[in-house]
Amino acid sequence: MYAGATETRSPPITVPMLRQFKQDGRKIVAITAYDASFARLADDADIDVILIGDSLGMVVHGKRSTLSVTVDDIIYHARSVARGSKRALRIADMPYATYPDPKTAFAHAARMIGEGECAMVKLEGGGPVIESIRYLVDREVPVCAHLGLTPQSVLRLGGYKVQGRGDAAAQALRDAARAAQVAGAEMLVLECVPSPLAAAIQADLAIPVIGIGAGAQCDGQILVCYDVIGISSGRRPRFVKNFLLGRDSVLDAFKAYVADARSASFPDAAHEYAD
Ligand code: KIV
Fold first, then answer.
1. Which of 110, 105, 164, 155 is nearest to 130 (CA)?
2. Which of 126, 145, 195, 234 is the most exposed place for a label (fewest CB within 10 A)?
3. Does domain 18-271 have CATH number 3.20.20.60?
4. What is the pLDDT of residue 2?
């Protein structure tokens, strides 16, 4: 049984390093993790960013959506991840309905940073959420925005579908991405959007754009850790790849994911959405 963090060679990832990676053309590799053991493996594989995602509601708790995840759930898992990870930058997901206005967002985000020992929080959506991003950034809470398919919108969207198709939807996404950057977001996750649109947003922004189902031209990639090793249940989205196939260990699978994402050989056409 694992009891602590291992020594790693690379220095801990800081918020300013993320933008520098983009400037240097070095791809950022991110993964979700929910416990100390997976966090340690992520560090050992040289993964840059660990997201304590509200996906834990589905992949850990077995729910049908992320909507029932609470701030306490994220903090519980984030503290476990913090015990396993010494290098990766840790991002806490703000759960559904925990950022209806800037002040409430700040109260919950401050807990993610303080009790959850994370360096950044992630908020889904544009529109009114932009004001909360600005409010958090002004109060020293680094923010990652999340646009495209935002799983917390599943009830309104009626399912998990590709976003940004058609001129109007693409323009709205480009505008929201710019607004998030202007509000002070340090990074943007783009989920399930056609690759040409993601590439245009990547080129538009100075902040790194991390894709999940958004093509290889993003500044980095993120995947759910259980998808990387092929143990997620249910319908497998197109962007998912099982890196454990043909390999002997979870660590080797994580290392293969890092190598392929850094060299932009993942995602390839089989894992992307066209216009
Ligand atoms: O909760 C999560 O795992 C996420 C990623 C899919 C980006 O938000």
1. 105
2. 234
3. yes
4. 45
